[in-house]
Amino acid sequence: MTAARPRFSVLIPARNEEALLPACLESVRAASRGFEGAVEVVVAVNRSTDRTKEIARAFGAVIVRDESRCMAKIRNAAARASTGEILMTIDADSRMSPGMIAAVDARIRSGRYVGGGVLIRPERMSLGIAASGLVLFMYTFWRRIYAGLFWCRREDFEAVGGFDESLTSAEDIDFAKRLGRFGRRTGRRFGMIWRAHITTSCRKFDRFGDWHLFTQLPAAIRLLGGRSARDADPYYYDVPR
Predict the structure, then answer these.
(1) pTM above the 0.85 mark?
(2) Which helix (DSSP H) or strand (DSSP E) does residue 90 occupy?
(3) DSSP of 123-153, one letter per residue?
(4) 140, 18, 167, 33: which is closest to 96 by C-alpha?
């Protein structure tokens, strides 16, 4: 008997994430209650030298390897290995709240949304983190885009071409823009989920400082441009874990 196709595929890129991946996976498991058999998890293991792959396998995740230094390629590799009707992305250092999958399901079923993002909460707070969060919120609200966790139908993901593999950073912002434009052309909104949320680690702030967004503003602007490997490598791809 052929197994039923899952409704949801949760896509997780992971490089040396043995410390944080278990909590991420457990949060997906908790959010999947009530959707038993309808949720698959795909972990894209990237250049890992620790137990990331073993942890993902023990959880029952689909595992795909991608050794590139390009987050867009890694995310797309996970999408290609998935089979669900609805795609959801989350990073390995984040945790989704228990109501996340139900919230996404309700919005997709309404037919009013092409996809969207969710509220992001940092795991700790400081004045620098709060100021950075305010700046990022104002930017994303002004541009009508969101980040942290994306959700959309597979057919819409494919219609916009997935993540742009020519970008070394800001592939999530670029994806949100293109998905939002596609939604407007097809009479649907790119929406925000406010009640359900993700909690994300502050390890970038721990490493670079709580005010690094402001003290290194030129590099941050170049990262938002998506095409500066010189800035992306030390911030994303070469950070020790």
Answers:
(1) yes
(2) strand 86-90
(3) SS--HHHHHHHHHHHHHHHHHT---SEEEEE
(4) 33
Question: What's the Cα-to-Cα distance from 108 to each of 70, 72, 178, 189, rounded to whole Å?
Answer: 29, 24, 18, 11
DSSP annotation of 235: I
Identify whether the C-beta of residue 39 lies closer than 8 Å to the C-beta of residue 10. yes
If you count them, how many residues does the chain have? 241
* Residue 26 three-state SS: helix
Average pLDDT value over all residues in the chain: 91
Using alpha carbons only, give the angle 98, 101, 107 rounded to the nearest 5 degrees: 130
Longest dimension (CA), the chain: 59
pLDDT tens digits, one per residue of 22-75: 999 999 999 999 999 999 999 999 999 999 999 999 999 999 999 999 999 999
pLDDT at 1: 45
Q: What are phi and psi of 58, to 5 degrees?
A: -65, -30
Q: Tell me how far apart the alpha carbons of residues 18 and 227 are, in angstroms, rounded to a whole number.
A: 29
Residue 96 near residue 23 (C-beta atoms within 8 A): no
CB 188 within 8 Å of CB 113: yes
Q: What is the dihedral of CA 209, 215, 219, 223, to 10 degrees?
A: 60
What are the residues whose beta carbons fall under 8 Å from the beta carbon of 68, sequence distance 6 or more? Answer: 46, 74
Whether 174 contacts 166, CB under 8 Å = no
Give the end-to-end CA distance of the chain in Å, rounded to a whole number. 43
